[in-house]
Amino acid sequence: MPRPKTRTLQMPQTPQNAAGAVQLAKALKTLLGYLCTILLVVDVCGNNWELIDYVGDAKHLLTPLLTVAEFDQIGHAFVFPVGNAPDHVSQVGQFMMNTSLAQIQARDSDTYILGTTMHPIQDSVNDICGHLVSSYPLPSANATSVRLGNVADGISFVRGTALSHWFSDTRSAPPADQGMNETQLRAMGYGPVRHGTDLRLTTHVAVPRPGEIVTTSISMYRFFMKAFCSGCVPGTELGLDTCAITYLYNETTHSLDVTASQAAVGSSHELGFIFQRRGGPILALYIRFAIVLLVFGVYSASQKTVQWVEFVPESLPQRLHNVVAPPLYRQPCSVFGLSDICFNSDIFVVLYTLAVLADEEISLVYSRVLYRWYRSTSFNLWIELRLMSMTMRWLWLNCFLLKAAKWTCDFASVAQYTGENRVMGWLTFSSVTWVYLSVFVLFQRANFIEYSNSVLIDLSCATQNLDAVSVAFLDSWYVRSMPDLVVVVLVNLIVLLAIDRVVNWQWWRATAKNSLCRQLMFNSTSILADVRGDAIDQPGYAGSCLVIKARALCTFRWFFSTHLTAFGLKEHPAILRAIHSARPHKTDPGSSSADVTADTAPMPSERTTHTSVAWLSDHDVVKPVPPTDAATLYLIVQDRDGHIHVVDGTKREMQELNVEVKILRDTTIVLG
User: Could you tell me the CA-to-CA distances from 482 to 28, 64, 363, 402, 485 in Å, in that order?
Assistant: First the structure.
């Protein structure tokens, strides 16, 4: 028999160009892999709420209220302007102040106190000191110093979302004017999205002689309570600024008049948070800990050769044990990388997606406020990495959406054979590099949410009584932005999948003719079709033949059986007939008869002779294939229970003993 001609699947190019494309793809994949790894480490350490709360850097931001035990005492400890005092806020505003004060006094395990980040004040954008400009009635004519306070209570109204801004006139239409009431705002298309009570408290200010104008610097503490539904437990944004104020004592009105107030240029705004410690973030913490152990065990197992064992009924503990610690040979194997496990394992993707969603109630608010203060300052690498790492979490949401789409397609499809449902194949990437590329749209999440809520106006308690104005959770600041954001995420995935198909169309065409790749594309929840192997031309066979090491096939079979959901579709009989017609006269003695039916729609007879690898994909080439190893073609099939079998053209299944011999000899198997 003539020696088979080896090739690798992809687009036509010269050997030099092919080698260059492979090196470029590997370099890009490595670079993106390092970036995602760094962001993961930053997220686990820098965005760990338990760790940040334990360090306690934000607790000094509570100083003005540490000795205030009750809400009514605030008015006695600080002087407030008429109309901007605590007793003038709405019922919901008073509830939020009471709740925040109780959290500050308790400082227990039911509360996260998170901080801090420093944001340089370079212009008026981050200058919030202007709220101090007002007239403060003095409590006593003999007062020598006072502490100033100012509270603003209101409900934020927003019109439109990102998609309506793009495809309608919600952004270009005339905006509302300050002073409009709720009825007028709703008539213009606005809706309530957030209730906010902004409390500012200062350190002591000396009372000057009558008529004397004084300029000095004071510290101003900020307690900005925000609730995204009426009556909900608020989160509190903490802040500390240095304000330069100009003031005088008005003897006629017996008040301290602050005529000017601005942040000291060159100073910094210190940012912190108070959040209720709910079950979601705690659940996310435990899931992440379990994921670390899972990844360590699975990756360690994937770097060795997993034993080829026959499928037998197993108990749940046995199945869970095989997920992490299957029976192993000592021989090394490198068929999977860490990224293949993290982004393609059903278990890992589902668990990490659950952890991400459980933690979103804090991370969404935290990242948005952090971004709002950071965007107007100079570049800060640590803050940049923290923001990117919080948005990169949605990378696993991308993977989950693809896997859910494949499962839904299989559930709704009436296809009987692998490859009949063409949509299924379009829900798979050729390489993990494409998964990495989807993160760049996710980095714009904070920008997108800000844009969705950019047509904004605040309805103050000074304009109308706010007690009858309610905020619905489903219409709140973040939730209202989610449908549009999900649309953008889906469009991002669709565009990347389409580009992958167009750029690598010849590689995909050849890949769909191989049974191993078809199991990944059409017969499982795998979102990656990347298989490390070498393709060859087999005389008399019109499909694509893939040469893979026996050790790699064993480990692949374990991963497929335990970390992916198999759909149990059969191979089309035409595929088995093609394998049978291309089989050699001598049968592999290590195979035995097995009643396994074959699958996929009949493949076209034309063949490709192009050489190289898929763009943005990297494939490790195996050793040259001796003629004797290429003599027998095998087919990867599933039974109706989703179990993987390897059969030849006569339906003889490869047995465990034969595989062990191939493992010890480090030989290869040719898959048609």
Answer: 31, 37, 14, 18, 5
Using an 8 Å Cβ cutoff, are 273 and 58 in contact?
Answer: yes
Write out the two tokens for 510.
């050849």
Contact (CB, 8 A) for 280 and 253: no
Residue 622 has pLDDT above 80, yes or no: no
State pTM to two decimals. Answer: 0.85
**Residue written as tokens 């306070």?**
149
The two structure tokens encoding residue 549: 């090491």
Q: In this structure, what are the phi and psi dihedrals at residue 401, rounded to the nearest 5 degrees?
A: -60, -40
DSSP 438-496: THHHHTTHHHHHHHHT-SEEEEETTTS--TT----GGGSTTGGGHHHHHHHHHHHHHHH
Beta carbons of 617 and 504 less than 8 angstroms apart: yes
Q: How many CB atoms lie within 10 A of CB 401?
A: 19
| Predicted local distance difference test score (pLDDT) of residue 321 | 86
Pair 635, 579: CB distance under 8 Å: yes
Q: How many CB atoms lie within 10 A of CB 471?
A: 22
Residue 584: pLDDT band by 50, 70, 90 thresholds? low
pLDDT greater than 70 at residue 120: yes
Instruction: Tell me the C-alpha distance between 367 and 377, whole Å.
Output: 15
Of residues 296 and 13, which shows the higher confidence score?
296
Distance, CA of 283 to CA of 289 (rounded, Å): 10
Burial of 102 (0-12, 13-18, 19+ CB in 10 A): middle
∠ CA 207-212-213 to the nearest 5 degrees? 90
First to last CA, the chain: 18
Tell me which residue of 393, 424, 604 sits closest to 519, measured CA to CA.
424
CA dist 216 and 261 (Å) reads 10
Whole-angstrom Cα distance, residue 512 to residue 48? 43
Mean pLDDT of 88-98: 93
Helix (H) / strand (E) element for 407: namely helix 394-412
DSSP bridge partners of 83: none
Q: State the pLDDT at residue 582.
A: 64
Residue 333's nearest CA partner among 608, 620, 123 is: 620
Domain boundaries, the chain: 60-277
Beta strands in 508-626, from DSSP E residues, in sequence order: 534-537, 545-549, 571-572, 591-593, 599
523-544 per-position pLDDT tens digit: 899 999 888 777 777 766 777 7
Instruction: Please list, in sequence order, all residues whose beta carbon lies within 8 angstroms of the beta carbon of residue 626, skipping any fewer than 6 positions away.
Output: none
Phi and psi at residue 288, to the nearest 5°: -65, -40
Q: What is the 3-state secondary structure (H, E, C) of 65-109?
A: HCCCCCHHHHHHHCECCCCCCHHHCCHHHHHHHHHHHHHHHHCCC
Neighbouring CB atoms inside 10 A of 315's CB total 8
Mind listing the pLDDT tens digit for each residue in 356-400?
A: 999 999 999 999 999 999 998 889 999 999 999 999 999 999 999
CA 627 to chain CA centroid, nearest Å: 48
Q: Which helix or strand (DSSP H or E) is residue 211 part of?
A: none
